[in-house]
Amino acid sequence: MQKVPTVYDVADHAGVSIATVSRVLRRPDAVRPETRARVLSSVRDLGYVPSGSARGLAGRRTGVLGLFLPGHDGLDETAPPAHTGDEAGADAAAADAATATTADAATADAGASGTAATPLIDDRDDRAAPAPSGLYFDEVLRGAEIEAWRHGFALMVAAGRGSSREVMVNDIAGRVDGLAVLSQTVPADLVSHVARRIPVVLVADSRPGDDIDHVGVDNLGGMRALARHVIASHSVRSLVYVSGPADSPDEADRRAGLDEGLREGAFAGNLRVVPGTFGRDRGREVATELLVGGRVPDAVMCANDQTALGVLDVFAAEGVDVPGRVLVTGFDGIEAGRFSRPRLTTVRQPMAELGRAAVRAIVDRLAAPEREPQRVTLPVEVLLRESCPPAP
């Protein structure tokens, strides 16, 4: 039987040190291109495959980070795209373009929450740099995958719901060096239990009072800016807000932002709050109920894009004029909103950057286990499209 090649064989074949081979396999960007090419050529020639167990024993680490997602129907709709290595530049270019477009408008939106100003962008002509395609979870996953690769880690992804969550979280926690957990996916006591063993970061979770690293977006500021636009620019007198799940931290912040925006816009009309699920089907149900009851308001603001797209589905099928008869808005900035009819006004959050920031938080915690817990809040922007356009 042929001898299985080792890292020593690769180093000898390529004429480099064992440490250089390790860097090429873990952090290829940290090695000069010619050296990297020589090592990778030796890896191919010898048929070398790194041993995860041996590496773990040597460094007391697995070289793997974990991402735990909720068991969500939308997660099955699209598969995460493979990264090409150019995404970081593309994301940065998109951010620069959006910033340049909105610098003047941003100064008007400093609000009571103390967060940074949220820009409003006239996106009716698709002038804002588009976000990569995908749903919310796909984009978070994509960003986490890219950032893990940049730091020399593989990414293990798991999803679960109900009674399976505890078993799955404990299982993945035993296989990784650190774990990112999406909001409300895992009970707080289980998060605390896992955090005693490995670094844990909570993503899109604003719950105070714990010792866990958090990464999120400015949900409050984004919804506040959008609500103020709806009221001030369109003289809305009746408004339906379709919420997210009651236990969602995102929903809590967005509802708080809605209330602030309505107060700042001196809204004196009728507000009706309808419970939602963040799902497109629920949006269709709400729109149908509004039509059957003859209670179509001046505006329907939804806690996320999927709900808003469901509302648009029904209004389009029934011939309801959007935005002539009723305005519709969402929150998230998923790609589908750019292709709805009419195109969806929304608050775009940096979903891929959320995944990247989560991985960076884990890597930082691995490097400095004793540092104080960090809370990172990423900025958002309002994209004004045809479903709720800028003021006439």
Question: How would you describe this protein?
Answer:
There is one protein chain. The chain is an alpha/beta fold. The chain has 13 helices and 13 strands. It has helices at 7-14, 18-26, 33-46, 52-59, 87-106, 136-150, 164-173, 188-195, 219-234, 249-264, 280-292, 305-317, 351-367, and strands at residues 64-70, 120-122, 154-160, 178-182, 200-203, 213-217, 238-242, 270-274, 299-302, 327-329, 346-348, 375-378, 381-384. The chain has a six-stranded parallel sheet, with helices on both faces. Strands 8-7-9-10 form a four-stranded parallel sheet, with helices on both faces. It has a three-stranded mixed sheet with strand order 2-13-11. Helix 12 (305-317) links the parallel strand 9 (299-302) and strand 10. The longest helix is centred in the first third of the chain and has 20 residues, at 87-106. The chain is elongated and about 75 Å long. The N and C termini lie far apart (78 Å). The model is unreliable at 72-112 and 130-134 (pLDDT under 50).
Largest sheet, in brief, is: 6 strands, parallel
Number of helices: 13
SSE arrangement, N to C: HHHHEHEHEHEHEEHEHEHEHEEHEE
Report the uncertain regions.
72-112, 130-134
**Coarse shape:** elongated
Structural class by SSE content: alpha/beta
**Helicity level, as a percent range?**
40-55%
Descriptive keywords:
13 helices, 392 residues
